[in-house]
Hints:
The chain has 3 domains: 5-270, Rossmann fold (3-Layer(aba) Sandwich); 275-415, Galactose-binding domain-like (Jelly Rolls); 458-496, no CATH class. Helix 4 packs across helix 5 (152-171). The termini are far apart. A 7-stranded mixed sheet has the order 3-2-1-4-5-9-8, with helices on both faces. Strands 10, 11, 12, 13, 14 and 15 form a 6-stranded antiparallel sheet that branches. The protein has helices at residues 14-28, 47-61, 111-116, 124-138, 152-171, 184-188, 240-245, 253-260, 302-305, 437-452, 460-466, 476-496, and strands at 5-9, 33-39, 69-74, 142-146, 177-181, 204-205, 210-211, 223-226, 264-270, 280-283, 324-342, 348-356, 361-363, 373-395, 401-407. Helix content is 28%, strand content 22%. The chain has 12 helices and 15 strands. The chain has 497 residues and is of the alpha/beta class.
Amino acid sequence: MKTDLMVLVPHEDDELIIAGAMLYGAAKANLNVKVVFITNGDSYDYLAPIRMREAVNALGVLGIGESDILFLGYSDKPREGGHLYNAKEGEIVCSNAGRKETFGTNGISEYAMTRFGVHHAYTRENYKSDIRAVLKEFLPEILITVDWDDHIDHIACSLITDECLGELFQESDYRPLVLKAQAYTGMWEGPADYYEKGNVTKQFNKTFGIKKEHPLNRWEDRIRFLMPKECRTRLLCRNLLYRAACAYPSQNADIRAISFINRDAVYWRRYTDSLTYRADITVSSGDGTHLSDFKCADCSNLSKDYRNYDAGMWIPAAEDPKKEITVTFDKEREISEIVFYENPGDGHIKNMELLFADGTRIETGELQRDGNASNLLLTERKRASELRIRLLEWEGAKAGLTELEIYGEKRPLSSFPLPLSLYREEERDGEPKSGGILCRFEKFCFLIKRKGRGKLWPDKWALLKKHPALVKNCTPGRVFYCHMKYVRERIAKKWKH
């Protein structure tokens, strides 16, 4: 069955943060929806059944039924060594909870058991093949997933999804709308600005105390959608996304809601219409397979430094006199735009030349640094069956490209079944202030709850992280003892500092 919208995320609650409004809008529009969780959220073993049931409850608030939710059953946080994404061929990675294969719980079977009748070992091959199988089975017309977040599982999800999509693009004519979002900057780690007039998503990441922007997600390139009226109410208690957040008590999503609920939903689009996916690409030296794999960056060791994009690049050999890429299309194609993604590491391309079969020669000039996309719009469309690209000037030992995209036409957003309308800045004018006695009182009560939780009256989830034995022995007396011990430790720590 055709799938209109798929949300693919690492953890239970990520779907609410990056796509809660989209999912609600899709449910209202009777679109066919699938929500896929890669891990069971089992950073602590006892959390898996809790978080999986919370996800079902939260999505139920948004109108998504349990039959449209898939759990792949992989681990949240590896115990030792590297992440599954960087595991060696055949290597089985043990999770922090001590598991080595996919699993379901609470009467919910994971995808591998449901689809193939077996649990899958925690290997990179299975990790990738399950994600690829889900994409290939449902072929979503719109795919929403996480992007460059400050979490190892989020980066891994982004990269492995790109890898799977690149292979599907090379094998078929499947070309979805891919929207990526940051779940931390401006959202989970955003400012607590729900009660501000016209609160919109900001670049700010409070963990770092700065505006934070990834090179591949330039702020000016973002796409903004207007939240449905049920998700931008003046009172938080009436907000649909807040009610869904309250279904995630183990993650304290309710007290984070005033940070990630905004009037706009922000995404970055990855275009999938590049002609390179079905073209033959050869290079004079280096590994040219990276130029059309849909991955704009890669990391050889996410556990060591997930911000170090040091893999997945075409770097011509130093002794290569040509330093050339040849793109041969399956037939004569019309070209209007070429996009280069430069190696974000030690190297920089200062100039390249494009050579067409009719003798036309075009120089690119200096590319964007830090891996940013460099868009070259041709003043006149060119028809060609072959295109050669040659490095002319560069600096550094690793000057090269991570991705090459060539476009004739780009499919417009309006052609996809989007459940939300685009956000227009002028809609902020004339909005009522979030004042009023009720709003001020609610804000006061909410801030007291937010300040107090985890300091003076920790909930049972905070206590469980400190005292896992409470899972089996959760008597009132035991909970009270652990509670007082927790508070005493907090006070002692505060006094010491």
